Amino acid sequence: MSMTILSTKILTSSQKSILTNADIKVEEYDAITIDYLTTPIDPNFKNIIFTSQNTVKAFLQTMGAQNVKKANYSAFCVGEKTKSVLEKNDINVLEMTNYGAELAKILVNQYPNESFLFLCGDKRRNEIPSLLTKHKVTFKEQIVYQNNPNPITFSTDFDGILFFSPSGIESYTAKNNMKNSVAFCIGTTTASEAQKHAKRIIIAQKPTIESVLEKAVEYSRTNIN
User: Fold this and answer.
1) pTM of the predicted model, to two decimals?
2) Which among 12, 21, 36, 188 is most buried, taking Cβ atoms within 10 Å?
């Protein structure tokens, strides 16, 4: 008997193969759609905080790749994938952490006299701006993309559901019940939202899509006959 899973994000072919190679059936959709905003980026800042790949994409779309190269920005980012996208576009990454709270502590402790442009989505977490404000570190916040829920009704009883953000859970549960599905969550913030709906929650080892998939495979091997 194989496990049936729903991914609340469209996976790449290599990501999907992690599941299918483990004999896991996968349905997938984007629980959240992203709208990138075209508001001009403030040119007075050279230190940019990027909290996701979406903030990088929005930044590049607004600025243009060539202008970014000329401007000599310094990046402070959350996530290995975010760092990878920045470096591919010749943006120097000075600090990278897996969570926003960790990055905020580094900024406060190691860069207290610098000023930062904090790029984020409209559903951003409070850890970074609240800590910077508390320690009087100069920053400006700019929303560069919007998260839009994409609620769809599913008739399948999934063994597990892959969640990558709290807003993805809100979107899914707007039209569906978690029932007995295991919630595989990308991190602790997402897991906190999942606790409102799911009986069983498993958190990824690292906050990456691949780590979520690995947890699903691990669960399948030990719990599905």
Assistant:
1) 0.86
2) 36
The alpha carbons of the chain give a radius of gyration, in whole angstroms, of 19
pLDDT at residue 5 above 70? yes
Q: Which amino acid is present at 127?
A: E
Look over the chain and give the mean of its residue pLDDT values, rounded to a whole number.
Answer: 93
DSSP code of residue 99: S
Per-residue HEC secondary structure of 106-141 comes to: HHHHHCCCCEEEEEEECCCCCHHHHHHHHCCCEEEE
More confident residue, 70 or 194: 194
75 Cβ contact partners less than 8 Å away, ≥ 6 residues apart: 48, 49, 50, 83, 86, 91, 92, 93, 94
Q: How many helices (H) does the chain have, and how many strands (E)?
A: 9, 11
CA distance 126 to 153: 31
Give the Cα-Cα-Cα angle 204, 220, 151 (nearest 5 degrees).
65
The rounded distance, in Å, linking the Cα atoms of 128 and 112 is 13
What's the pLDDT at 120?
A: 94
